[in-house]
């Protein structure tokens, strides 16, 4: 039985519907204009459903009908559903990069909730940036919220081989560049790599961020692992609808769930999952919105003690999210790392995390390993610092060739993606497998929007020689489905004059993951000279959203939120006036 903390007259929506005044008359008459009798909404929680469906969003294709399952649950529990379309942010179609728009969706979500007569919200997302963006908005708004993950798509298939989103695109693209895949086979790979609606089914950013949402306590238990095409996903959607109505009566807000301990749990789970590097940026931003001081050091601490136990590509070598679900999903994984988790934290179920995962089992020890038999003994991510990245950068050691964990090589520098793309195909490019490929002006401001360019292509000349990994360094991000010795998120970024801007071709760069260091072997006097001569690249935007983005975006180590959206920027925004 729900522990009632609110009465109908205390509902937020009652401000719109209950008063005997002209404005409330307008609200009630307009509800009736839509065909709703007072009995359908009077005294009932109004539940927003923020739906990120669109015709340009293949990962959320099923949301067009799945929203009806959410509504069914809301109605069944005595609520009144109100679907509000939100920015869709398709990772594959939206250019130049969805990261340019994560904060725009976060603002969209927050203001949609603030401006409408709603008491709680079901957040429907899953494709990479939609998860953090919706959660950022809901965190700032702080009305009861539950996250409904889109769920991973089915495994890819080509000629009986299992195909993984992203990871196999990069892999077979290199094979094609090496002349080993025919035109026909390439079209067949295109047709087989994304076989159903749902999010990327590798442990990319989508699977990472939905798992994080669950481990923070913002989804129903096990919700993030259910494949989009599984009937269980429909049942979960309906349950989200039922549960959010109870959460409104219980006044169970994100603030009561998103404690520091909850974020520490999320970091631990991210490490055990072999998470996407993007997790760092989004989690820092979300924690700051929740008023929790989480930074790169928290990831570094967890990374040292939590092994990667999810054998899911790209950190793992074989399995995909569908296998992970059959093996016990996230509750199964969390049961294996219980001693690293705070089990007493509250979740959207109204129960603790410990209660939610009690009795969880693992059904396949190869897919979800034990901590004694991990994929990678240390955590998925390592934070490096040094004169090249004073505010830090990130590498995913579990997804790169081990020999690169300690490496010194000469720099080969590119100032932008087009010139890099052209040079990389040059058969006479002066490059060896020991080089460190550098792409700069690809950070939050420089990209703009910090595109996922960090997995720089291996030069064609080396691909033909059989080289498939080398050290790559940038202030960009990389897709969670990517792999290789890619050092990312170099902060501060080169576009604003960070040390990466000072590197020249042939400079020696030393990477030592065990020592967590990255350094440019150039004397400080020479660097000072280069710094004095450095000129900032041309302005990216003269007007519009991009102009605002450039002025307010924070660096990667600070979560790339807009400064004015951070919780500490000013006093909380109040409820809208109704006159
Ligand atoms: Fe949508 Fe990967 S493209 S989750």
Q: Main β-sheet: number of strands, strand sense, barrel status?
A: 6 strands, mixed
- Specify the helix fraction band: 25-40%
| Number of E-type strands | 14
What is the spatial order of strands in the main beta sheet? 12-11-10-9-13-14
Rg from alpha-carbon coordinates = 24 Å
Unreliable segments of 5+ consecutive residues: none
**How many helical elements?**
21
Oligomer: single chain
Q: β content, as a range?
A: 5-15%
Bound molecules: FE2/S2 (inorganic) cluster
What do these coordinates show?
It is a single chain. The chain has 579 residues and is of the alpha/beta class. It is 35% helix and 12% strand. The strands form 4 sheets. A 6-stranded mixed beta sheet has the order 12-11-10-9-13-14. A 4-stranded parallel beta sheet has the order 2-1-3-4, sandwiched between helices. A two-stranded antiparallel sheet has the order 5-6. α4 (63-76) crosses α10 (231-250) and α9 (205-216) packs antiparallel against α12 (260-273). The chain is globular. The chain starts with 13 loop residues before the first helix and ends in a 27-residue tail after the last helix. FE2/S2 (inorganic) cluster is lined by residues 59, 91-92, 127-128, 165, 199-200, 204, 206.
Topology:
Elements: H1 14-17, H2 22-33, H3 38-41, E1 46-51, H4 63-76, E2 80-85, H5 102-115, E3 120-125, H6 130-141, E4 145-149, E5 156-158, E6 161-163, H7 167-177, H8 183-192, H9 205-216, H10 231-250, H11 254-257, H12 260-273, H13 278-289, H14 296-305, H15 321-326, H16 329-336, H17 353-357, E7 382-386, E8 389-395, E9 406-414, H18 417-424, E10 436-439, H19 460-464, E11 472-474, E12 486-487, E13 508-512, E14 517-520, H20 524-533, H21 544-552
Parallel strand pairs: 1-2, 1-3, 3-4, 9-10, 10-11, 11-12
Antiparallel strand pairs: 5-6, 7-8, 9-13, 13-14
Bound molecules: FE2/S2 (inorganic) cluster.
């Amino acid at each position: 039985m729900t522990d009632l903390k609110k009465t109908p007259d205390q509902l937020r929506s009652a401000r719109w519907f209950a008063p005997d005044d002209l404005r409330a008359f307008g609200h009630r008459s307009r509800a009736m204009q839509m065909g709703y009798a007072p009995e359908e909404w009077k005294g009932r929680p109004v539940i927003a459903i923020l739906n990120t469906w669109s015709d340009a969003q293949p990962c959320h294709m099923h949301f067009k009908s799945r929203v009806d399952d959410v509504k069914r649950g809301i109605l069944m529990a005595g609520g009144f559903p109100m679907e509000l379309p939100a920015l869709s942010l398709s990772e594959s179609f939206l250019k130049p990069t969805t990261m340019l728009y994560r904060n725009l969706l976060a603002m969209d979500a927050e203001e949609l909730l603030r401006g409408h007569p709603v008491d709680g919200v079901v957040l429907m997302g899953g494709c990479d940036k939609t998860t953090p963006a919706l959660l950022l908005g809901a965190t700032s708004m702080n009305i009861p919220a539950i996250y409904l993950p889109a769920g991973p798509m089915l495994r890819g298939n080509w000629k009986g081989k299992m195909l993984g989103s992203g990871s196999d695109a990069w892999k077979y693209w290199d094979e094609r560049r090496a002349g080993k895949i025919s035109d026909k086979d390439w079209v067949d790979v295109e047709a087989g790599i994304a076989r159903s609606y749902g999010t990327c089914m590798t442990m990319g950013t989508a699977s990472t961020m939905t798992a994080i949402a669950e481990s923070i306590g913002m989804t129903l238990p096990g919700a993030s692992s259910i494949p989009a095409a599984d009937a269980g996903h429909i049942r979960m959607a309906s349950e989200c609808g039922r549960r959010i109505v109870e959460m409104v009566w219980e006044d169970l807000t994100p603030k009561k769930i998103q404690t520091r301990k909850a974020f520490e749990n999320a970091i631990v789970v991210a490490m055990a999952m072999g998470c996407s590097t993007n997790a760092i940026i989004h989690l820092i931003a979300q924690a700051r919105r929740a008023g929790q001081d989480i930074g790169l050091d928290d990831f570094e601490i967890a990374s040292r003690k939590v092994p990667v136990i999810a054998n899911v590509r790209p950190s793992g070598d074989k399995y995909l999210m569908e296998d992970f679900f059959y093996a016990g999903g996230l509750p199964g994984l969390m049961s294996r790392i219980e001693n690293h988790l705070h089990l007493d934290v509250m979740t959207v179920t109204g129960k603790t995390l410990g209660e939610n995962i009690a009795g969880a089992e693992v059904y396949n020890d190869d897919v979800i390993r034990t901590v004694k038999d991990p994929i990678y003994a240390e955590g998925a991510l390592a934070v490096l610092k040094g004169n090249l990245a004073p505010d830090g950068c990130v590498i995913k050691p579990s997804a790169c060739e081990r020999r690169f964990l300690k490496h010194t090589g000469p720099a080969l520098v590119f100032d932008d993606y087009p010139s890099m793309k052209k040079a990389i195909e040059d058969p006479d490019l002066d490059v060896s497998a020991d080089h460190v490929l550098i792409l700069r002006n690809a950070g939050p401001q420089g990209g703009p929007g910090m595109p996922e360019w960090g997995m720089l292509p291996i030069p064609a000349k080396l691909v033909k020689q059989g080289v498939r990994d080398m050290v790559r360094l940038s202030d960009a991000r990389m897709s969670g489905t990517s792999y290789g010795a890619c050092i990312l998120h170099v902060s501060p970024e080169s576009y604003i004059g960070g040390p990466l801007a000072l590197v020249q071709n042939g400079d020696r760069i030393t990477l030592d993951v065990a020592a967590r260091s990255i350094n440019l072997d150039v004397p400080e006097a020479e660097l000072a000279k280069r710094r004095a001569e450095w000129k900032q690249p041309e302005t990216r935007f003269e007007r519009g959203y991009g102009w605002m983005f450039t002025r307010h975006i924070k660096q990667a180590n600070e979560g790339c939120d807009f400064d004015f959206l951070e919780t500490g920027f000013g006093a909380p925004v109040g409820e809208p006036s109704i006159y």
